[in-house]
Design a protein that fits this description.
Helix 1 packs antiparallel against helix 7. The protein has 7 helices and 3 strands; from the N terminus they run ααβββααααα.
Length: 227
């Protein structure tokens, strides 16, 4: 019976890290959702401030259903904040709202990694969905061209995950810098926002590691089959 040691050694640890990261971000968000900021500023207020500071006047801010469903839609130039963020004055709400506003700022400034990531989206979606299956099918039926095609397609998806890291880190860095420079929060509150953003960042790190290890697994499997 064949046992995939590469999956056990390479992929399983990153999947465990992903589960831990999801638990961490939910617990951190929950903790700081119960702590209000001294200025009683809501997530919407904070997002509006960041847009004003950067001279961005063509981005609307709207509430959206769900929890942690916050995102910036560049096609319609709408910043959508979940209800626990939009109208709440918690430290967590400030952190999430300003991070997503950071993405709006990136688009306004034509931030290079973000533009590259957006360009990769169509191929990355195909690669993520079909790349691994094509590679496995090629391994099963001994079709080298199919293995290579699957690996190349999945490689684009992996590149997308890797480029996502500087995009997310930069969005948080922009948010923290503006909050600090404009003295929106006191030092303790700013540390709380940083913890919320750091916890969220770990989910992206875990996703990128999982993609990288899965990619490495496919390459090792293909090399072993060709020997």
């Amino acid at each position: 019976m064949y046992f995939d040691y590469y999956y056990l050694i390479l992929v399983v640890p990153t999947l465990i890290l992903s589960i831990w990261a999801q638990i961490k971000v939910k617990s951190t968000f929950g903790k700081y959702s119960r702590i209000r900021n001294g200025r009683n500023m809501t997530g919407r207020d904070a997002a509006e401030l960041l847009l004003q500071v950067n001279g961005i006047r063509d981005v609307a801010i709207e509430p959206v259903g769900g929890s942690l469903t916050d995102h910036y839609d560049p096609s319609s130039k709408v910043l959508r904040l979940s209800k626990p963020v939009y109208g709440q004055s918690s430290i967590a709400a400030i952190g999430v709202a300003t991070h997503e506003t950071g993405h709006a700022i990136q688009y306004a400034r034509s931030y290079g990694p973000l533009i590259l990531r957006s360009t990769l989206v169509p191929v990355a979606n195909i690669g993520s969905s079909f790349g691994p299956w094509l590679a496995v099918a090629g391994l099963v039926f001994s079709f080298s061209w199919l293995i290579n095609l699957g690996i190349i397609l999945f490689g684009v998806a992996v590149l997308f995950y890797v480029i996502t890291l500087p995009v997310e880190f930069n969005a948080s860095a922009r948010a923290l810098a503006i909050l600090r420079d404009n003295k929106v929060l006191n030092p303790d509150e700013l540390r709380g926002v940083r913890k919320v953003l750091s916890a969220a960042a770990m989910t992206y790190v875990a996703s990128a590691l999982t993609a990288l290890m899965s990619f490495l697994r496919l390459i090792l499997l293909s090399r072993n089959r060709r020997r």
